[in-house]
Specification:
homotrimer, about 260 residues, ten-stranded parallel sheet, about 25% strand
């Protein structure tokens, strides 16, 4: 099937864990370390060299680390210098540029494009076609939906890049634009197609172009459903509180 | 050229019709059936296995059917369980997830991403970079333009998915967002960058965020052109009324 | 590494300059000419045949020219009939359709999609995921940011395509839509998420849906920074005035 070793290239300087599958037509470059029980599907590149590689005969690839139990779907490209925690997964044709750090149990959807020097926490979900500019940062348990963008250049074109920040547990809707340097607090919900041009406080429901805070998200009532936010009490698939409940998990975590 | 059988993998459990060309570096998985006179270009995957494939040693690929005279352009990925009618075509790097059903003579543009469990009628055109979420449905003769999105999650994140619906003959402009569960009627035109948050009646011209109905599309006059909608009277390329005219075709169809 | 000649196909009718590197799994078609010192990374296609190729046994690929010192990153597809100036570069998975002409020293970002019969000047930067429809035209030193779109169909669907135009030095923000046939002047800045539905004069700062001119960009003051526009006085990376300054370069250029 697709893991039959056909047209695969693995650098002798890569370290491949035990029980790792590498799909056909994939390439693993120098100084890549792939954790145990990971799957790299077909036509992928892990440890893609930086631009100096093309011109510098002494180029040395920086280390790239992918944690155990990762799943990279086909046609994805992960640059050298990325540090990705355990249980990392991608859709197809994902690009992650150099020196990006991603925590545990995150997923990055089909066609998403992380431009490098980005920090992402743990348990985040980037759906399809999310674009994160350089120097942006994202907390834990953050979800971004298709075609959402974090930008970084306040006076384009410039070299004065200011990535924004999204706090823990926040949800960023489809086609949302976070303008350069803007901070979205924790536990926010940003409505579809919003342009966020200034700081959004924790627990805000914000929407519009420019985005305005409509209400405290804890007061948001849905007919027949009550208050769906904060969402951690009603959604647990893939979250560390799965099977436990958020409150129990929090109590256990705080004890530690 | 690109159909020289270089680095091609075809499952012995696939059924390939007569006069089918398969491009270099492509893979055809178990239980895929490709109709006669189809072309699968290079670096494509047809019958991509579902996620259980990676872990379940007894995994069996569900059947995938592609009708005759189809053309899949390079680097596209079509998951197992899809049923695609005759004369189906794609641009490059299209993703179609599992259990999607598409009628006859549809095209799906470069980089479009159909997330699975989607139903699309016949003679639809999805241009580049269209994103359709799970459980959405689209009628016949519907056109969607670049970066348009159909969403499905009313209170993200949730598992309570409610795909929307677009009626026959409707045109959905660039960067339009259809919110979860929203129904766009037949013969509508949705202007660029609109966010559609509630039901749109048949024959509406709607635009804005949130989208508002501006007028009955049949009253829309363009200087020097008269009324361009419904469009079927003036556009026929690739439509079943090509060379016949819409009214004649309708009369013939109704007779049947 | 990735230039080890593995699974490469080069037409005997292609002309490859001196010191050109071609990555693994790439294909170079008939009548492609690649200038000296260029790099074509892995899994790319240069000179992708037009649709007649699939059906016409007498099909002949039109000439494709890529200037010297070009860098095409992996998984990109450049159709036959394109003429690309020196120092052209792309991100990953770029698509450039047939008969597109691009000047010198342009870059086209990851996942961008240029639909064919497009004219782009010199020193332009298309960032990731920019979509340019057929018959659109772009001047020199123009920057377009992610998910920006130039459209071309005033009454979709039609065959009456009218591409827009963007003048020299203009900056087009993320998620901007330029409607069919609209002219954006020179030295403009179009804010994020705008929909440009009518002509924008030179030196305009415009934003909104529909876009309105907010002020003459030369009067735009930023606290602590003064006036950042026109931008050529403060940004020179990769521009022909790098190391010289814009005014000196202009004077030298005018003398010529």
């Amino acid at each position: 099937m697709k893991f039959n070793g056909r047209n695969v290239w693995i650098s002798p300087k890569a370290k491949i864990g035990s029980n790792v599958k590498i799909g056909d037509n994939s390439a693993i470059y120098d100084h890549v370390e792939i954790g145990d029980n990971s799957i790299i599907c077909n036509d992928s590149v892990i440890g893609e060299p930086l631009v100096a590689y093309y011109h510098d005969p002494d180029y040395e690839n920086p280390p790239t680390v992918m944690g155990p139990k990762s799943l990279v779907r086909s046609h994805s490209i992960i640059y050298a210098g990325c540090i990705l925690g355990r249980c990392f997964s991608t859709g197809h044709r994902v690009t992650i540029r150099e020196n990006t750090t991603i925590g545990e149990c995150c997923s990055v959807g089909t066609l998403s494009d992380i431009q490098g020097n980005v920090k992402i926490g743990s348990y985040c979900r980037l759906h399809s076609n999310v674009h994160i500019s350089q120097t942006c940062a994202i907390g834990d348990f953050v979800f971004l939906y298709p075609f959402s963008v974090m930008t970084n250049d306040p006076y384009p074109p410039s070299l004065d890049l200011k990535g924004g920040h999204i706090g823990n547990y926040s949800q960023v809707g489809v086609h949302v634009v976070i303008l350069p340097g803007v901070r979205v607090g924790a536990n926010c919900l940003i409505g579809a197609n919003s342009v966020v041009n200034k700081k959004v406080q924790d627990f805000s429901l914000a929407m519009g172009d420019p985005a305005r805070v409509i209400m405290d998200i804890r007061k948001y009532l849905v007919m027949g459903k009550g208050n769906p936010y904060p969402w951690m009490h009603r959604f647990e698939r893939g979250m560390p509180w799965e099977g436990l409940g958020f409150e129990t998990w929090m109590q256990q975590n705080v004890k530690k």
